[in-house]
């Protein structure tokens, strides 16, 4: 009984063909899917490459807080300081040099769920920077929104912890202001000497304490009147555009209630002021422009 013996030369030829075929297959497969036999290290490298290639939609960036921006915002330890001439003073408008058409949008009572995020998106789309006066309790409830405010380049001011109007002794006034400032710094890394009394009340002890600590008590020279429960958003737009003057500080709100009408009015306010030739600045920037 005899057995077939393969020719050695044929075996070598077959081996070459197999090796060549595997090499081609591996080359093609590597461009699309990682084969099961590839080492875990190669899989990890490919996964890392894919993660780096992911593009985050712009809408996601404007509606959520970017973690890296949050970190850098706190590390930078921003300080919204004021010129010496405004320390311990009340200001509602600035007379800019050369009567330049600059205006500051100020937004009170937040950060607030939904409303503040929508306003931030509108401001970003229009390349406008504003000044947000934060309430301590609202900040405590919505810290990530406050971080986004800072990450997008807006200024921050202090609007007390409880937003009380009543008269306070010095200890209570101190607590209302300093407790809020401490949380602003702890949350965002920002130090601010901008203070706005709730309701614009100047005689209940808050403004007196703020002035004793060299805060600038920032009021406003014109209001959108967006706290009027009966007014439509068109009225807010009309109020701002009618009363605009160089160096004005505009009052609006993102918290303290349903501010959807303010959100609706904001794009028209911005476009209308731009058509009038105004450039938008933050309150700290405006104070630096006093002639």
According to DSSP, the number of beta strands is 11
Mean pLDDT: 82
Q: What is the H/E order?
A: HHHHEEEHEHHEHEEHEEHEHEH
* Class of secondary structure makeup: alpha/beta
Describe, in plain words, how this protein is organized in 3D:
- With 291 residues, the chain is α/β, with parallel strands linked by helices.
- The chain has two domains: 9-47, no CATH class; 68-288, Glycoside hydrolase/deacetylase (TIM Barrel, Alpha-Beta Barrel), CATH 3.20.20.370.
- Helices cover 47% and strands 13% of the residues.
- The chain contains twelve helices and eleven strands.
Q: Summary?
A:
This protein has 291 residues and is of the alpha/beta class. The protein is built from twelve helices and eleven strands.
What are the defining features of this structure?
TIM Barrel, single chain, 291 residues, 12 helices, 2 domains, alpha/beta, six-stranded parallel beta sheet, three-stranded parallel beta sheet
Can you lay out the helices and strands and say which pair or pack?
Elements (H helix, E strand, L loop, with lengths): L7 H23 L9 H14 L4 H6 L3 H10 L2 E2 L9 E2 L10 E9 L4 H11 L5 E4 L1 H6 L1 H9 L3 E4 L11 H19 L2 E2 L1 E2 L10 H7 L3 E3 L3 E2 L9 H11 L4 E6 L6 H16 L3 E2 L2 H6 L3
Parallel strand pairs: 1-6, 2-8, 3-4, 3-10, 3-11, 4-5, 7-8, 9-10
Helix pairs in contact: 4-7, 5-11, 10-11
């Amino acid at each position: 009984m005899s057995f077939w013996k393969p020719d050695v030369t044929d075996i070598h030829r077959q081996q070459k063909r197999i090796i060549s075929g595997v090499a081609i297959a591996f080359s093609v497969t590597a461009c699309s899917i990682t084969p099961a036999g590839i080492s875990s290290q190669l899989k990890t490298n490919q996964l890392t490459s894919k993660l780096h290639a992911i593009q985050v939609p712009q809408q996601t960036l404007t509606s959520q807080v970017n973690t890296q921006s949050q970190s850098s915002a706190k590390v930078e330890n921003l300080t919204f300081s004021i010129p010496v001439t405004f320390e311990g003073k009340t200001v509602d408008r600035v007379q800019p040099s050369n009567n330049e058409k600059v205006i500051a949008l100020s937004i009170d009572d937040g950060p607030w769920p939904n409303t503040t995020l929508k306003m931030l998106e509108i401001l970003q789309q229009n390349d406008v920077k504003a000044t947000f006066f934060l309430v301590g309790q609202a900040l405590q409830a919505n810290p990530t929104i406050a971080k986004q405010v800072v990450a997008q380049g807006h200024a921050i001011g202090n609007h007390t912890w409880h937003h009380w109007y009543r008269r306070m002794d010095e200890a209570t006034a101190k607590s209302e202001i300093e407790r809020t400032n401490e949380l602003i710094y702890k949350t965002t890394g920002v130090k601010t000497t901008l203070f706005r009394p709730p309701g614009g009340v100047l005689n209940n002890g808050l403004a007196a304490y703020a002035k004793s600590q060299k805060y600038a008590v920032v009021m406003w020279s014109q209001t959108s009147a967006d706290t009027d429960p009966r007014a439509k958003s068109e009225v807010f737009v009309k109020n701002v555009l009618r009363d605009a003057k160089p160096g004005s500080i505009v009052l609006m709100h993102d918290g303290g209630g349903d501010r959807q009408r303010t959100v609706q009015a904001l794009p028209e306010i911005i476009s209308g002021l731009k058509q009038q030739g105004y450039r938008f600045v933050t309150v700290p920037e405006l104070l630096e422009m006093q002639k």
